[in-house]
Write a structure and sequence with these properties.
By secondary structure, the chain is an alpha/beta fold. The chain has a single domain (about 5-240), classed as 3-Layer(aba) Sandwich (Rossmann fold). It is built from nine helices and seven strands.
């Protein structure tokens, strides 16, 4: 990810509609994972620290890890304790140290070239019965100027995510596409911008009222896809458990 993208992310993510929707899916994933109160949870690829704050607010002991010094600097600015610099391909932790783990938009990155190895490492550091929450961007055909900006190495399908998780030893308990309602608009915009130079989708965020409408729309969507899984979406969310 380009260095100034961390600065942009830090400025907008606490109020941005997309990050609000992601954290709603993370909350639902935490409930599905059923981690015990006070459990130690690895936030692998923690970015600027908002997800670690979420985990702390839910009563867990978050251990935020990132390879980028810029990300860790923003985490420190939030006052997040226990930040660790490390690589998801070789986690600096003993086996079975965590009850849970979060990989929120990490596997997609070009620096994580070996997705299988990253998931094997997460499996290694999870206690038996522990669960991982995974979010990734969907469909390589949506690759755009934003992906160039954030150094996307791969966008996924649900089948690819399931295969990777199962190959690492996990049992997939939830797996679905989300950001479904906005898929046609986002797909059209990204296809139009595909040949443009690297540019961030976070630039020019909508005004507060429009952002509130988008968050409400995705809230309705979240309740619907819990009942009727969608065949497509802009992102993919998964919950997977390590065999007890």
């Amino acid at each position: 990810m380009q260095t100034d993208e961390y600065d942009l992310m830090r400025r907008v993510e606490d109020a941005h509609w997309w990050y609000g929707a992601l954290r709603a899916h993370l909350r639902a994933g935490v409930l599905a994972a059923d981690w015990p109160g006070g459990a130690r949870v690895l936030d692998a690829g923690c970015g600027t620290g908002a997800n670690a704050q979420l985990l702390g607010g839910l009563g867990f002991r978050a251990v935020p890890l990132d390879l980028a010094p810029e990300a860790l600097a923003h985490g420190r600015s939030r006052g997040i304790p226990g930040l660790v610099r490390g690589n998801v391909l070789a986690l600096p932790f003993a086996p079975e140290r965590f009850a849970g783990a979060v990989l929120a938009d990490v596997l997609y990155h070009s620096a994580v070239g070996d997705h299988a190895q990253a998931l094997r490492e997460v499996y290694r550091v999870l206690a038996p019965g522990g669960s991982v929450l995974v979010n990734v961007p969907a469909f390589q055909g949506l690759y755009s100027a934003h992906d160039k900006r954030i150094h996307t190495g791969k966008r996924f399908t649900k089948g690819e995510v399931r295969a990777l998780l199962e190959a690492a030893g996990f049992t997939v308990t939830r797996l679905y596409y989300w950001n479904v309602f906005l898929f046609p608009l986002i797909a059209a915009m990204r296809l139009l911008r595909r040949e443009q130079p690297a540019a961030s989708d976070l630039e020019g965020a909508p005004p507060p009222l429009a952002g509130a409408v988008l968050r409400a729309l995705l809230g309705v969507e979240r309740r619907l896809i819990a009942r009727v899984p969608a065949p497509f979406g802009v992102s993919i969310f998964a919950v997977a458990r390590k065999t007890p």
